[in-house]
Amino acid sequence: LLPRAARPLAPSLYHLLCCPCDSAELRLVGTHFSCTACGSTFPIQYGTPVLIDPSTSLFAGVTGLEWDPCSHNHGRFKWATTALKQLRPATSTNLTAKANYKELARLALTQSPSPLVLIVGVGELGKGLKDLLGDSRFSFVESDVYFGHRVNVIADGHKLPFKDNSFDAVICQAVLEHVSDPVRCVNEIWRVLSPNGIIYSEVPFMQQVHGGAYDFTRFSMVGCRRLFRKFKKESAGMVAGPGTALAWSIEYFVRSFSNSKAWHFAARNALPFATFWIKYFDYIFQHIHAAEDGASCCFFLGRKRHRST
What we know:
The chain is of the alpha/beta class. The protein is built from nine helices and eleven strands. The radius of gyration is 20 Å and the shape is globular.
């Protein structure tokens, strides 16, 4: 059975939805939505609207967890990976997310006393997001391309099924590397944000492939700013620095000696015990501008505007 959403999408938010094919109005008919223009129908499963354009999306026909990228990475080692994940030390830092979410909250509350926030790609909860999700002043629409315990709208970021100017803020954390056309996705985020709405995004730079076939793109600091050129910058910088990048590189260097899944499994779960300490250099590097050229990941926090640079 498909997992239930943590909170099925509230019917009071249905008015924000539109057809992912042509952006027309949707009409609720029993347990599905029907487009008033093209006639396409979209099911509601376990309280979760499935709003994917079947003619363009890679995820058309999603019916369960088969699109969850995490479900494909471990195979027969999944049981051991789950256990070892609790034991192995992290090799990555996140220098800024907690402070950035506090600033996002402050900015969003200038938009509305009860901001409505869209999370694009909530299947895996990003670092630092938990406190914001617990803030009763905010309401959330949580989307992804596969069913998950937090997902309450199935949507493809290339064509978000929401009306223009619907949200006070959008969060897109560690997602844009996994889409085939990040510029199109950012344009969609811009479209669904209200005037002066807030965007927060984290994107990788010096990172090896993760997510298998669903990992496409990397962004330097300048590339990240170019990607969000339709937004006024509030702040931007490193999320994780060269220390994290080096720890990742050591793991993938060792993994490169073999195609064996067992070898990769051993490298992933044994090496962090020897390399985890390298990440702590990032706390020094965060004060050195030159370190941004070797950053593992960067962030952008900004406001929607009507002219690009």
